[in-house]
Amino acid sequence: MKASRLLFALSAPLALAACQTGEEPRPAVSAQVPTTPGVVSTADPRATEAGVEILRQGGSATDASIAVMLALTVVEPQSSGIGGGGFFLHHDANGELITIDGRETAPAAAGSDWFLDSEGEPLGYREAVISGRSVGVPGNIALAAEAHAAHGELEWEALFQPAIRLAREGWELTPRFVNFAERVQERAAHQAEGAALFFDDDGNILPAGTRVTNPELAQTLEAIASAGPEHFYEVMAQGLAEHIAANTPGDAAMTPADITGYSATMRDALCGTYRDYLICSMGPPSSGATTVLAILGQLERFDIAGMGADSVTVWHLFAESQRLAYADRELYLADPDFVPVPAQQLVDPVYLAARSELIAPDMRIAEPEAGVPAGVIQAFTDGDEPEEHGTSHFSVADSAGNVVSWTSTIEGPFGSGLIYGGFYLNNELTDFSFRPEVDGAPVANRVEGGKRPRSSMAPTIVFDMDGNPVLTIGAAGGGTIPVQVAKALMGYIDWSLSAQDAIALPMLYSPGDTISLEEDNVVPGLPEGLEALGHTVRTRSLPSKANAVEWSGGRWIGAADPRSEGTSATQ
């Protein structure tokens, strides 16, 4: 599971110049040395406490973030955990930035017909999801091992103790969890183990406040803690593969070799500038960086600060920029180990300036189409991936100046509905296009054996002009993730809002022909104003759940989405 490490040591002006010329930018050596305690921000207070506990023991930001991921496996099983994967960004006071790809992989036997029926047509979403067919090889434990080897301070086993204690001694079900379990009971209680954990004998979800335990998960965590990640990828491989295969229709299925052969991968960060800041996020197979940087880059020529957060024009421009960015995302983004992905070209300032010229302050783009960056020969077409859901993000800073941004997921609520070892298994493979080709042209994000599906996760670190990290942020909520991050960065940079207030800004999601607004949107006259510009607008509940840590006033400050049960706490 070892991979090469990346060291970036350019000065801040050089890094910014690289962004402006379209070359791959690199964050600078940081001169910032915090003198205040570290901070943890997560989607659940029990996970936040786990991270803080590790910081207080002398653990690094990496150590604390691993403890958070493990605790979320227990208390937020509907969203993330060791049955899934994630993306990890880390920056230290010496200027090193690493990103680790812990995305799940398709079994070697998975081919282009993986999600097609006997007639060659795409399966229904429910049939595809609630099955071993949707499960990718989990990557979070391998990711954690790589991260710990690079930047861990405490012993591996110590990081598991808060999660083991929660699983063995119990935790209380929250209203958010109960709502999820009730709405997707067919997945939460698909197998007897899930039903026994969270439902009564009559099949009713246990009420919020009920204290539950998960001794099987505690045993699994204890084994991985004492024996190391090899326990997950070697000792458990046979039983885990057999369980998934037994729930997979057809002859092709996951094998032990798929699990033992998994590795987390070091990748280059993808960076760009917005105003006077350097923004670094996760490159392919995530679409997070390209989409966030495209949304912001296309807005750069507009006076967002001057128009203000109550301007209908601002939110119209934000919607239009999304539509262009998502058109590019749908066409180009996939696993770069399998298809050529022009990630750097998609965020090149010259390309984004040209895309921006398609946006008018007083008119809606009729049909946003993907662009063609310089030097790119487009050989692929858009697929038909289902809408994404779920996920959890956490941000951590420690007193030594290390910062972590990690987004973790099992995809939809309760993943595939399959449970093994006390944890839910992901349904990440439904992030692939169900159709391998459209009108004879191949889809970049089609299913292939060993391939990682495209993701929306966008763990992000923001640097000031001096190369200091000033914000680490990310979000949960499927396809809305890049929009949540871009919106918060717009608020933080253009309107000088705190991370907390930037996260709390209204959500507007516009990846296609319809704008979705939050039901309690607070911008006066926004729906009517957008409709007057030609938009189709609907209000609905949006899956917003962002977490951040910012450097402000000489100290680290945490921020958590007020729409969620998230919290932040100081060491």
Automatic annotation (TrEMBL):
Annotated metabolic or biological route of this protein: Sulfur metabolism; glutathione metabolism
EC number: 2.3.2.2, 3.4.19.13
Region feature Disordered, mapped onto this chain: 24-43
Record's keyword terms, sorted: Acyltransferase, Glutathione biosynthesis, Hydrolase, Signal, Transferase, Zymogen
Quaternary organization: This enzyme consists of two polypeptide chains, which are synthesized in precursor form from a single polypeptide.
Protein family (similarity comment): Belongs to the gamma-glutamyltransferase family.
Protein name in UniProt: Glutathione hydrolase proenzyme
Biological source species: Aurantiacibacter sediminis
Name of the encoding gene: ggt
